[in-house]
Amino acid sequence: MNFDATTIIYILEIVVGGLLVGIGVHFVPVGGAPAAMAQATGIGTGTVQLAAGSGLTGLLSAGLMMSVTDNLWPIIATGAVGAMIMIDATMLTGSWIYAYAVGAPFASAKVNYDPITGFSQPPYVAPGTVGQGIPTICYVSGTIGAAMGGVGGALIYYPLVMINNNPSLSAVFAIGIFLVNAVLASWNIQGTIEGFHDPKFKKWPAAFKACLVSTFILALVAVIITGGA
Amino acid sequence: MDALSMGLVAAMGALATVAGASEDIDSDIGSQSNPNSQVQLAAQVGNPHRIYNKAIAGEPPSNALWCTTAAIVAYMLIEAFQMPALFSIALGASVAALFDGVMSMSAYFGRNASQKRFNQWVYLDIVRYTTPSIMAHVWITSFCIVTITYIQVYVLTPHHPFPIPVIALIWGLTVGAIGSSVGDIHYGGEREFQWRLFGQGLNTMLSGQIVRKAEAGLRNSIDNAWFCAKFGGPATGMGFGLTVFLDNWRTTVFDPVSQALLAIGTGVFFVIVMNLYNFYLERSARRKYGPYPGYKGDIAA
C-alpha cells in the first residue's frame, strides 16, 4: 500500500476518533461500585465498561449504516445516536431503581446547585454518602459523553473500512482502539467522576495527550496491517 | 418498512428484554458484580455468610465471553456443518453455560478458601444447588443474544455486515454494562442492606454489614434472586430491550439510504424524551421524599 494523502487523512480520522473517545469518557457519570450501593452519584459501574457498552452500540449502528452508504456524515451521526440511546436507556432504568427501590432523591455531592435545573443538592445527600442517583446535570453530561464515544467509534471504523473493505476486520480493530482510549481515560479519572461539572473533569488534557500518542501509533499499525491484508 | 421486518424488530426487543433480565438475575445469584465488594468485605469484618461469590470478571467482559463463545459455536455449526439455526444456537448456549459453570465454581472455591482466616467456609451444598441456577441463566442470556445476532445478520434487511461473533461480543458487553449499571443497584443498594433506614444509600460506616438471615433460615443467593427478580431484573431487561428495540426500530421504519435524516432525527427524539423523563423522575423523587432531616448546612432545600 502507498502512503498517499488519502491514507494520511484516514490516519488523522482515526486519531480524532480516538481523542473523542478519550475525552467522551470524562463526560460519562460513573460512580463505580459505591454507586451500586447508592453511596455515590452516577451510574453504578466502571468507566470503561459503560463507555464501551455505549460506544460499541454506536459502532453497531454505524456499521449498519456504512453497509448501505459511503457518506461519512450519516455514519457518524447514527453512531452518536446509537450510543446515546444505549446510555440514556441505561441511566433511565437505573433512575427507576434509585427512585422506586432504594427510595432516594437524586443528588450530586460535587456542586451546591445543579447548573441546569438550579436544584439545591446538599440537603438531599444522604448522611455517610457522597450523593446518589443521576441528577439532570449528570444525565445530560452522560448523553454528551456517549455521543462523543459513538462519533469516535464511527470515525475509527469508517477509514478502516474505506482502506480494506472488510467490515469484520475493521470492527475488531475499531473495538481494540476504542478500548485502549477508554482505559487510558479511566486511569486519568481514577475510578469515579460525575460529569463535566466535576472538578476531576479539568484533568482531561492529560488524557488528551496520552490518547493522542497511543491512537497515533495504533492508527499507523491498524492502517498498515489491515491495508496490507 | 415491511411487516416481517417490524415483527423481527419486535422479536429482537422481546429477546433482549429476556436476556437483560436473566443476565441481571445471573449476576445476583452469583453475586458477581459491584455489590460483591460488600460480600467479599463481609467475612473480613466478622460476618461469614452463605452467599455465592463468583467475581470472575466485571459483568460486561464476562458476558461478552459467554455470548461470544455461544456465537462462535453456533456460527461454526451453521456455516461449516449446515446445522439448523435453532439447534446450533441452543448448542452454543450450552457450551457457554458449561464454561460459566467451571469458572463460577473455581471462583467460589478460590475466593472462599482464601478467606479461611476470617472463618469463611466453603459450603458444598451451596455449590451444588446454586451453580446450576447460574448456568441456566447464562444459557438463557447467551441463547437470546445469539438469536438477536442471527436475526440481524441473516434475516433482517439490510443485513448487518459484522459476523455473528463480533455482534455477540458487542451485545454481550452492552448487556453486561446495563446489568451492572441497573440491576446491581437493586441488589447492592436494597437487598444486601435491608435492615438500615429505608430511603438512603449505604452509609460508609455500615460497609460489610450485609444481611445474613433470610425470611426463613440463613440467607443464600437463591433468596437474593427471588427478591431481585421482582424489580432489578425486569428493569435491566427493560434497559437492554429499549436499547435494542429503539436502535433497530428507527433504521427499520425509515430506510437508511433514502431516509437517513429521519432515522437519525427519530433517534435524537428518543434521546430528548428520555432526558425529560429523567428530569421528571428527579423532580418527583425530590418532592415525595424531601431533604434528609439531619442536614445542618445553610443551603435551603
The biggest sheet of chain A amounts to: 2 strands, antiparallel
| Helix fraction of chain B by DSSP (H/I, runs of at least 4) | 55-70%
Helix content of chain A: 55-70%
| Portion in beta strands of chain A | under 5%
The domain count of chain A comes to 1
How would you sum up the global shape of chain A? elongated
Number of helices of chain A: 7
Could you spell the SSE succession of chain B in H and E letters? HHHHHHHHH
Most extensive interface: pair and counts? A-B, 84 and 89 residues
| Helix/strand/pairing category of chain A | mainly alpha
The main β sheet of chain B shows up as: none
Keywords:
heterodimer; A: 229 residues; mainly alpha; two-stranded antiparallel sheet; 2 strands; 68% helix; B: mainly alpha; flat
Task: Explain what this protein looks like in three dimensions.
The complex is a heterodimer of chains A (229) and B (301). Chain A has one domain (43-223). Chain A contains seven helices and two strands; from the N terminus they run H-H-H-H-E-E-H-H-H. Chain A has helices at 5-27, 32-36, 47-66, 72-102, 136-164, 167-189, 204-228, and strands at residues 107-108, 131-132. The mean pLDDT of chain B is 92. In chain B, helix 3 (59-81) runs antiparallel to helix 4 (85-114), helix 5 crosses helix 6 (164-191) and helix 8 (232-253) runs antiparallel to helix 9 (260-289). The chains are: A mainly alpha (229), B mainly alpha (301). Chains A and B meet through helix 2, helix 3, helix 4, helix 5 and helix 6 of A and helix 3, helix 6, helix 8 and helix 9 of B.
